Amino acid sequence: MVIDLTQFHQTFFEESLEALSDMEAELLRLDSQMSGRRFSDEFKANNESLNIIFRAVHSIKGGSSTFGFEVVANFSHVLENLLDDIRENRCKTTRDLISILLQSCDCLRTLVQNAQNGINTLPTDINDFQIKLEKLRGTNCAVPLDRRKNIRSIDNFNDSKTGWNISFTPNRDMLSTGNDPVRIIRALTQLGKIRSILNINSLPSWKNINPEDIYLSWDIDFFEPIKKSMLENVFSWVEDDCVLNIIQKKDPQKSSTSKSGQYIDTNADTMVPAPGASGNGLEVQSIRVSTPKVDALVDLVGELVITQTMLSQFSEEITPESIEKLQLGLSLLERNTRELQESVMRIRMLPVGFALNKLPRIVRDVSQKLGKNVKLDISGEGTELDKSVIESIGDALMHIVRNSVDHGLESPAERIKAGKPETGTIHVQASQKGGSVVITIEDDGSGLKRDLILKKATEKGLVAEDANLTDEQIDNLIFIPGFSTASQVTGVSGRGVGMDVVRTRISELSGNVEVTSKPGTGTKLTLRLPLTLAIMDGLCVKVGSQVYIIPLLSVIESLSVPEQEISRPAGGSELVPFHGEYLPFLKLHELFKLNTAVKNTSDGIIIIVEAESKKIGLLVDEIVGQQQVVVKSLETHYKRVEGVATATILGDGEVALILDISTLTNLVNHKHHQGHTLKEAS
Fold this sequence. Notes:
single chain, 682 residues, alpha+beta, Alpha-Beta Plaits, 5-stranded antiparallel sheet, 19 helices, 22 strands, globular
């Protein structure tokens, strides 16, 4: 009998990538032991750490050989020989060598992911690096490195009806900023079908190639009828690190051609399948589940079967004597269903450490490039969060930490002058509070320079010259698109792209970001995220005959306001008093064009909500109650409605819309500050 080995490929890829993550973690642990010393100083590496690293590479070599991934196997073999020399003390262990091994880990990860995507060729830059590794064995590993640059892992970078043509040319140094063009193209495949042409005109000769630079560009046909803004959103992280043109095309069935490019067509309409895809172009996503979670599910299903059997006895006839047993059975059914729901949701929960484990590498590379000494402390890695949320916050966390190293922490000389330890500290902590997870990123740097922030914002016309802003309002200026206080653009930051995207990404997850800072002491960013995007706690409110859901994380307070306390400034929206300040509020029955008995504000209830550090009021008829709701996509079945995020089905079978508090907040504030009329959604 012939065994089809392709059925084991996905397991091999998953285990290989996990082994590489373990390898990287051990290398960073070894590097941290030598923090503060010269990179050329020799040190004695922990044998157990070396064994873990060696076993990771050895396992990948064995598996790749078995499955016929010769490119992966050959590179692993060269790296394994070098690691064996290190274990047998035939090669000096230095921080320079650790840097080489980290770069090797990046290369091997790229090769594994290439094999996962059906690409079985050896990239030129990795081939050159492999040759260097082979030569390294005879030199005691004493190879000087340019520590200002690093090969980056692919994992860390990486209303039209007619479709779009996208021209994407990354800046040559894009990899040094922690971004990867391949990852951008993968994100495009999540929006719809693409066909890509890889342009290799700028490739230099082999001897002139720098493996840390990008020489490629892409021409992409995007076939789906989506808004241009959705495509621009994919490139928002790198919009100033590339040349990008998105043009509406006439005929979506005609693919672009290029005499100077290399045409890529995998019959799956993508150049690179989505993450987790197998070589045949079919996306395969999996999640590892602990045995106790599966056992709990099996037990609950057994309880449901017993309850179903009990209730089936009453299907023929219900007598007065059996009503009590029927009520007991229904009570058991309700309890078991609730527990089953919770157990199923726990299956999707993963430790937030999956999103935090990339931060040590980012801190090491950026601090090394900037000449700063930085210590990263991470706690609460075991806090569980929904898989989809974890996958969405990785880029935001990396950008915040990168900003802390670059902008927040001072140079060693400046810290000593300020009476601080030479090594700066960034502390990342995750914890669960109620129905949400809170992640804080705090540094002990110089804090936000409010005078400079206000000056820059005034120069750019973002705030009026005579504006009297509080410290909190000044701090939140860093979230304005395009805002930056950097005096010059570097490979790390300075383009004003990032913090606004961070806030946008977190808001899309129904979360929020807060920043607090103390001059000379440090800055703290707090991310508050829902445990899961599938089920949420909501406040049910009634407007006319319709029921709406307000995410409970956004609700601050509810109040009834007498008509005489409502402020009506000329040319602006109505304002409601709230703890010493006046807030604009929105009448939901006007926004959604509903008939309601509430004619005066005092007849209804105002719900104070907050999004992106902005508070507004929402006028509703009454509060129905608080309950957990199952989130259903609205766009899948209908279309996007302004002010509405998703929908849910209530217990009586009726559909209730879940409000998009971020959009409503921006609408109300836009009307309040600009005097524009709200665009009503139907």
